[in-house]
Specification:
Blueprint: E1 25-33, H1 39-47, E2 65-70, E3 74-80, H2 90-105, E4 108-114, H3 123-131, E5 136-142, E6 166-169, H4 178-188, H5 206-221, E7 231-238, E8 244-252, H6 258-262, H7 267-284, E9 288-296, H8 304-309
Parallel strand pairs: 1-3, 1-4, 4-5, 5-6, 8-9
Antiparallel strand pairs: 2-3, 7-8
Length: 320
Amino acid sequence: MNNENRIDTSAGQPTSDHHPDNSFRSGFVAILGKPNAGKSTLLNALIGERLAIVSDKPQTTRDRIAGILTTERYQVVFLDTPGIIVPRDRFNESLIARVDEAIEDADVLYHLVDATDPEPPNERLRDAIARTKARARFLVINKIDKLSVDQKDVLPPGVNLAEYNQVFRISALMKEGLDALLEATVAHLPEGPLYYDPEQITDREERFFAAEAVREKIFLYTGEEVPYSVFTKVEQFEERPDKDYIRVVIYVERESQKPIIIGKGGQLLKRIGTEARQDIEKLTGRPTYLELWVKVRKNWRKNEFDLRNFGFKVPPKKRS
């Protein structure tokens, strides 16, 4: 990678973990926060690619997604995670399990906070931050572009600064303050190897992003409970000489949701397919034929068999 595209970490403030410039540093950064804090937007901005789907609706992210940033001097693996809430069902418990996995791997933890959120962190989020064994914990205040000048120095409610090594104020959407955040992150990483090939920007396969592209359009074009009742699964993914073939099944929880996804005369399903196909082709660089099917899997979010079949890790039930 050319020097013009690299960030000079030596310009940052030295820390006790600062390494000589000739050492290679690598490690994992877990991005934690409440739903809609901007975690996926931050991941995309740091990597420079649109890896994680983004929506104005909370709890869009359901899985841990790794974005990999590699230069001649470091490799940072950013872990986007589902928004942390107090879970009230097995589905949301499985999402919190994804967060726990990210915490275990983290060398640095970002607690991402929406600067406009008037509510303090919930108990599960506070617990996750307290449990992390990361070398450094950063309070990252996002969406400062939405604040007036006199609001920019105000701390979020319920935050204890003693729990963090540093505080950063950023706008992931406008890409403000990211250089300083990255500088400090690299300074806290240990010396280490390349965990991934230098050309690799994520640990996910193309079929994962194909399913996510379809789900993102459903979040965009449907409302109320429908997006949260949907699971998208790639049933077939074939790379062909002329055009890839991908079949994605859209599972909904109730019969009444099926015509909503399909739309009048199939128009909404066609729009979802067209726009998702365009996103998939941008990602793969290959022409694609995308076929969509809508099926009902009744109450799949409450069924542990379905959750496991869809790849969710369901934690053991707590004894009362």
